[in-house]
Automatic annotation (TrEMBL), chain A:
The keyword DNA repair does not apply. This is Sodium/hydrogen exchanger. It comes from the Eukaryota. It holds the Pfam family Na_H_Exchanger. One of its GO terms (biological process) is regulation of intracellular pH. It comes from Gasterosteus aculeatus aculeatus (three-spined stickleback).
TrEMBL record, chain B:
Keywords: Calcium, Cell membrane, Cell projection, Cytoplasm, Differentiation, Lipoprotein, Membrane, Metal-binding, Myristate, Nucleus, Protein kinase inhibitor. This is Calcineurin B homologous protein 3. It is found in: Cell projection, Lamellipodium; Cell projection, Ruffle membrane; Cytoplasm; Membrane. It is a lipid-anchor. GO terms for cellular component: cytoplasm; lamellipodium; nucleus; ruffle membrane. It comes from the Eukaryota. The lineage of its organism: Eukaryota, Metazoa, Chordata, Craniata, Vertebrata. The keyword Cell membrane applies. GO terms for biological process: cell differentiation. It comes from Gasterosteus aculeatus aculeatus (three-spined stickleback). The keyword RNA-binding does not apply. Residues 140-175 form the EF-hand domain. One of its GO terms (molecular function) is protein kinase inhibitor activity. Belongs to the calcineurin regulatory subunit family. CHP subfamily.
Length: 818, 249
């Protein structure tokens, strides 16, 4: 990320470099907590000094071939950027060494503190900070990742459920704050005693706009930790996102107005019109680019290695194009992210999806870290204009107007909300209005033509420091003290998912019955439209995947992963070991994206088989089918050792017990939990009974596609064979016909089987086994033909594509063979 | 059920007291009711099934079934009647539970329901208000859970058996593309196993889990904020007339 165009003079570079190295090694060495190990830094210095020596004369005229040259000016800018980013990142590492600190003191506070220290040192050696916060650099490079981060990780469902409130607070609230603070400050400016009469109304409004941009990252992480109720969380989240958009629009407008000599009433109307054009224009571009991105990823299945790139390029393109027409670029990137996220994540492979999430998160957090860091540095190193009256009143007004705004706006919005905000929520909302990165960056990018820029910078920094430190630190105890209503957000059970869906459908149905068209009605309508039209166009593998199925798969994966993690230990003890163990890592990754376990899973698999991973071509990603095999193999062996093989092992320490059905009990009337589909049993049995025949049938078909060892291949085949039973889009009708036959085939054997006590032992099994075997053979023949057409199925990489083939979905077929 | 149409205001007031709806809401719902029933006193399953917007709902059958469930009605009456006495609700729930089990034979579904029952069922979807105490919220939550539970428990025996659960999951997934029946079954099984393991952790190898009882049902959905999720905004303003032409045939 090229963040800054640093304009350090050559003469200062050496000292500065030394300084950076000292700092980073200091922070690195002492983890940022105990800055008292200068030796660590000093040891690094010697090798650097001589290196730096020659660069002052880079192009000395010489005839001989130089043995050793240095050209620092060539690499200066990227080099320094890298060092700054590293420094900030080291600081971040530092805080997280001591978990307790980040719990009680928000990270932004710590970053600012580090920045203050660094700034202090720089100031003492008369070093100038890099000019990172030029208007262009900020708006073109720093802001997009921050906004993309928030937008991409916006919890979609609660957001749309509360969209009215979110927009109400973001748009009206920001206007309210800007105008309120601006007007009151203008009134203050009329008092002669403060000596700020020269600030006119436009400038006051501009300044007020800047400091009404809330940035409650710290608050959000606190909210997440104490899991406050969803409504409050999403309103704060959404507010900060759209509030940025509104603020930037207002900022540009007032910036323009502030330079006008006279403001006529027409301009006000034009301004209002422009406000809407800018907002909706940005939204339009965002939607356009979002759909384009989704449509593009439809075709990227063969170029997985560059897949994640499209997401970033399209979002950035949306941003830049919006900038080009000077409409709200934040709006554009936010809507772009929101629009494409859903479709893109279905189109891209699991791995690309993980990559996208990580990179988005990484870029966002590094941009934010840098801004906070520079905030600290700049606080020390710039010249301030301190005006007690103006700054104190700014603080006061910022606080009062925010409080009043929330109070008034909630009173207005509450009648329209089904779950109104109570006073505790309102307090959280008002108190969560921290100012942060955006305000700081905006005030720094003010044009120099504004006379009191220094004062504005000082005042903004004061407000930011005040809110971030005071409110940021005190919000957690306060929220816990007043006991805001909480929502349990860690509900990852299938039952909950199923019942949530049922509730959704029920509510939509009841709304239909009432003839009321409200929220769920529109949601239902949109889902229909989405399923019938949008998905067909935008999604490659157009199979509407129910969230229940998705969750089921996720849980299966998670479970498989836990077992994998535990593989070194006693496998039969795995379930009981896992359950206490599992709770912890979850807490660690609070960010919702990190909750997904898939990446960990794939990593784990790589470790096992790393030696065998072959990078076939330069552009191919490491082969994914290997991990599949590993997992399958794992799975099989786990099944064997766990014997009953509960896939819910973490939750279900004793579940394996249920797997044995008491003899003579009828499956039909009383069902033992953990039974899976009947066909699976048959599969297992047939395999147990006729292993030789099976493999004979199978092997010729496989020999071309699989490089695996024999036993693996057999397992592998099993999965694919089975997939026929479930679904396969590609093969379509022909396959379905095959399925039909198999169905009749199996259903004939199914009915007598239902009351059958349990698999393997029953004497009836053998007879049935042969029938199944016939069925299997039938399938395999069906299977062979389409197989080469489709890329080697690999569910780790493309869970959607072969959702059906997911071996985990078909769990019990991996039953231990007798 | 849909007895006296003579004094609608008085009747509505009475209903309002019992269901917690406001008079306007009741008026609106009453209009809708008449619209659906074709100005009859009672409404039949066919009336509801013919609602075009409902046609795409995967669990339409259960939803409509919920309206015609006798025992649910009885419970609604009791529950709603007990509105001021929330603390006793738990007991009532148990009594009802017993009742429901006793009536197993005859407590099927009825063909016609009146406005009163229509309203009672609707009253399950009232949103919580700011004034509610924690106890009232808890009671409301139970009531909503009970409603959901009854939707699953089609044979009214007090437990959701695996067969019933599977059916629900299957229907739920039926609209979302080509998910095989096996997948649906596997999911239902997994869900069932989950319930079993959370509720009966110490199960002998010879035991089997009969089905989800209401207590277990409550247990598995413990973390879920029912009272703030399962609700509908019943409109105070009369807007039904504007839609008559479109939504009904």
């Amino acid at each position: 990320m090229d963040l800054c165009t640093m304009d350090l003079r050559i003469t200062r570079q050496r000292g500065f470099l030394l300084f950076i190295f000292t700092c980073s090694s200091l922070l690195h060495g002492s983890r940022g907590e105990i800055p008292s190990k200068p030796t660590g830094g000093v040891t690094i210095l010697p090798p650097i000094k001589p290196d730096n020596g020659p660069q002052a004369f880079p192009d000395a005229e010489k005839e001989n071939m130089p043995v050793f040259t240095m050209n620092y000016s060539r690499i200066q800018i990227p080099f320094e950027i890298t060092l700054w980013v590293l420094l900030a990142s080291f600081a971040k590492i530092g805080f997280h060494v001591y978990k307790k600190i980040t719990v009680w003191v928000p990270e932004s506070c710590l970053l600012i503190t580090i920045g203050l220290i660094v700034g202090g040192i720089m100031h003492s050696v008369h070093e100038e900070p890099p000019a990172v916060l030029r208007s262009n650099v900020f708006f073109l490079y720093m802001l997009p990742p921050i906004v993309l981060d928030s937008a991409y990780f916006m919890p979609t469902r609660p957001f749309f459920e509360n969209i009215g409130t979110v927009l109400w607070f973001a748009v009206v609230g920001t206007l309210w704050n800007s105008i309120g603070i601006g007007m009151s400050l203008y009134a203050i400016c009329q008092i002669e005693a403060f000596g700020v009469q020269d600030i006119n109304l436009q400038e006051n409004l501009l300044f007020a706009t800047i400091i009404s941009a809330v940035d409650p990252v710290a608050v959000l992480s606190v909210f997440e930790d104490v899991s406050v109720n969803e409504q409050l969380y999403i309103v704060v989240f959404g507010e900060c996102l759209f509030n940025d958009a509104v603020t930037v629009v207002l900022y540009n407008m007032f910036n323009f107005v502030a330079e006008m000599p006279v403001v006529e009433p027409v301009d006000v109307f034009l301004g209002v019109a422009r406000f809407f054009v800018v907002g909706f224009g940005g939204m339009g571009f965002g939607i356009l680019f979002g759909f384009t991105a989704a449509f593009t990823t439809r075709f990227t299945s063969r170029v997985r290695e560059i897949e994640p790139l499209f997401i970033f390029m399209y979002s950035y393109l949306a941003y830049l194009v919006a900038e080009l027409f000077s409409i709200s670029s934040i709006m554009a990137i936010v809507t772009c992210a929101l629009t494409m996220k859903y479709y893109v994540e279905e189109n891209v492979s699991q791995r690309s999806c993980t990559t996208i999430r990580h990179v988005v998160k990484m870029l966002g957090s590094i941009a934010e870290t840098l801004i906070f860091f520079f905030l600290g540095v700049v606080t020390i190193t710039t010249d301030h204009e301190w005006n007690w009256g103006y700054i104190l009143f700014t603080l006061l007004f910022a606080f009062v107007w925010r409080g009043l705004g929330v109070l008034v706006l909630t009173q207005i919005i509450n009648p329209f909300r089904t779950i109104p905000f109570n006073f505790k929520d309102q307090f959280g909302l008002a108190y969560g209005g921290l100012r942060g990165a955006i305000s700081f960056a905006l005030v720094f990018t003010l044009p120099d033509s504004i006379g009191r820029k220094q004062l504005f910078v000082t005042a903004t920094i004061a407000v930011i420091l005040f809110t971030v430190f005071l409110q940021g630190i005190s919000i957690r105890p306060l929220i816990e003290f007043i006991n805001v209503r909480r929502t349990n957000r860690n509900l990852d059970t299938i039952n909950v998912e199923i019942h949530c869906r049922i509730m959704d459908h029920t509510i939509a149905g009841i709304e239909d019955l009432c003839g009321q068209w409200s929220h769920f009605y529109w949601k239902d309508k949109f889902m229909k439209f989405n399923n019938q039209i949008l998905r067909k166009i935008l999604i490659r593998d157009n199979r509407a995947e129910s969230s229940i199925v998705a969750l089921y798969k996720k849980l299966e994966l998670q479970n498989a992963m836990e077992i994998l993690d535990d593989v070194s230990g006693d496998i039969s003890a795995a379930p009981s070991v896992v359950s206490p163990y599992e709770a912890k890592p979850k807490r660690k990754f609070l960010a919702p994206d990190l909750k997904n376990m898939h990446d960990i899973l794939s990593k784990n698999m790589y470790k096992i088989r790393q030696r065998t991973v072959a990078y076939t071509t330069k552009h191919a990603l490491p082969n994914e089918s290997q991990s599949k095999e590993i997992l399958i193999r794992r799975h099989a062996s786990i099944r064997r050792s766990l014997r009953p093989g509960s896939f819910q092992s973490s939750v279900v320490p004793k579940s394996h017990k249920y797997f044995s059905l008491p003899a003579g009990k009828s499956l039909d009337s009383k069902f033992p939990p953990g039974m899976t589909s009947y066909a699976d049993d048959e599969e297992t049995m047939s395999e147990a009974a006729y292993p030789s025949r099976r493999s004979r049938l199978v092997q010729p078909a496989r020999s071309s596609s699989s490089r695996a060892m024999m036993p693996l291949r057999r397992l592998d085949t099993l999965t694919e064979v089975h997939s026929v039973d479930v679904v396969d889009e590609k093969v379509g009708d022909r396959r379905r016909a095959a399925r039909g036959t198999s169905r009749t085939n199996s259903s004939s054997s199914r009915d007598p089987r239902i009351p059958a006590p349990q698999r393997h032992h029953s004497s009836a099994d053998n007879g049935r086994g042969s029938a199944d075997n016939f069925r299997n053979g039938h399938h395999e023949e069906e299977e062979e033909e389409p197989q080469p057409l489709s890329p080697a199925p690999s569910w780790t990489a493309e869970p959607r594509e072969d959702a059906a083939q997911n071996p985990l979905l078909r769990r019990p077929q991996w039953k231990p063979k007798k | 059920m849909g007895a006296s149409q003579t004094r609608p205001e008085h009747r509505h007031q009475d209903l309002a007291d019992r269901t917690g709806f406001s008079l306007e809401q009741i008026k609106n719902l009453h209009k809708r009711f008449q619209q659906l029933s074709g100005d009859e006193d009672t409404i039949s399953k066919e009336n509801l099934e013919s609602i075009p917007t409902l046609a795409n709902n995967p669990i339409r059958k259960q939803i409509i079934g919920a309206f015609f469930d006798k025992s649910a009605f009885a419970e609604c009456l009791l529950a709603a009647g007990g509105a001021p006495h929330f603390p006793y609700r738990h007991q009532r729930g148990f009594i009802l539970f017993g009742l429901r089990n006793q009536h197993r034979g005859e407590a099927g579904s009825c063909d016609q329901i009146g406005f009163e029952q229509f309203l009672m069922v609707m009253s399950h979807f009232r949103p919580p208000t700011l004034k509610m105490t924690a106890e009232e919220k808890e009671a409301m939550r139970r009531e909503k859970l009970r409603f959901l539970f009854n939707m699953h428990d089609t044979d009214n025996d007090g437990t959701i058996t695996l067969v019933e659960y599977r059916k629900v999951v299957e229907e739920l997934l039926s609209k979302s593309g080509s998910i095989g029946q096996e997948a649906a079954e596997a999911i239902a099984d997994a869900a069932m196993l989950e319930v079993a393991s959370t509720n009966v952790p110490t199960m002998g190898p010879d035991d089997f889990y009969e089905g989800i009882t209401f207590e277990h049902f409550e247990q598995i959905l413990k973390g879920l904020e029912m009272e703030s999720r399962m609700h509908i905004r019943f409109l105070d303003v009369d807007t039904t007339t504007m839609r008559c032409g479109k939504s009904t045939s």
